[in-house]
Amino acid sequence: MQKGWFITFEGPDGSGKTTISTNVYQKLLTSGLDVIYTREPGGIDIAEQIRGIILDPKNTAMDVKTEALLYAASRRQHLVEKVLPAIHAGKIVICDRFVDSSLAYQGVGRGIGIEEVLSINEFAIEGYYPDVTLFLDIDPIEGLKRISNRHYRDRLDREAEDFHLKVALGYQEVLKRYRHRMQVLDANRPVEEIVNEAVQYILAKVKPSV
Q1: Which CATH class is domain 5-209?
Q2: What global pTM score does this model have?
Q3: On the chain, which terminus has fewer CB atoms closer than 10 Å, C or N?
Q4: Mind giving me the DSSP string for 146-181?
C-alpha cells in the first residue's frame, strides 16, 4: 500500500492554527481523501493526560527541561500509537503541532537551545518528520491580542510577552532549518482564504500518490 502523508500545522499562539487545520481537515475529508485529524500534545489517551500536566496553569513550578521532556514523551506515544499506524495504512494525517513547536517554544522560548531540544526529540521520533508543514505566519503581538480574549488561557498562553517574542524568533530558525518542507501562509487574512490556499497546496502534493 502507498505510504500516507504526515502534514503538520505550526504557528505562534493566536495564529489561528487550530481553526485553520480543523477546517482544512474537513475539506479534505469531504473531497473523499482518507484523512485523520490529531493534535499535540495529545491525540491519544496517554498523551492527553500528559497534555493536562503540561498546560495546567497551576503547574508554575515546572522546570523548563521537565516541560521539554514531557512534550517529547507525549510525542513519542502519539507517534507510535496513532500517527505511524495511520501513515503505514496509507492515510493522510493532519496534525496540529509536532516537533517544530518544541524547537521554538522550549528550544528558544525557554532558552534550552534548539540543538538540545532536538536531541531529546530525535530520540522520541526516530527520524519521523512531517512530509509537509504549513506555517501560519502572524506578528506575535497580534497573536497575543487574539488570545487575550480566550475564555480559558493555559499555562503557556499566560506567559509574558517576552516569551512569545522569543518563540517567534525560534520559529524563524525552524523555518530556515527545515525550509524544504515548509510552506508559509499569511495568517492575517480571512479564515476561508487561508483554508482554501492550504487545501490547494496539500492537494497538489498528495494527489499524485492517492
Answers
A1: alpha beta
A2: 0.94
A3: N
A4: HHTT-S---TTTTS-HHHHHHHHHHHHHHHHHTGGG
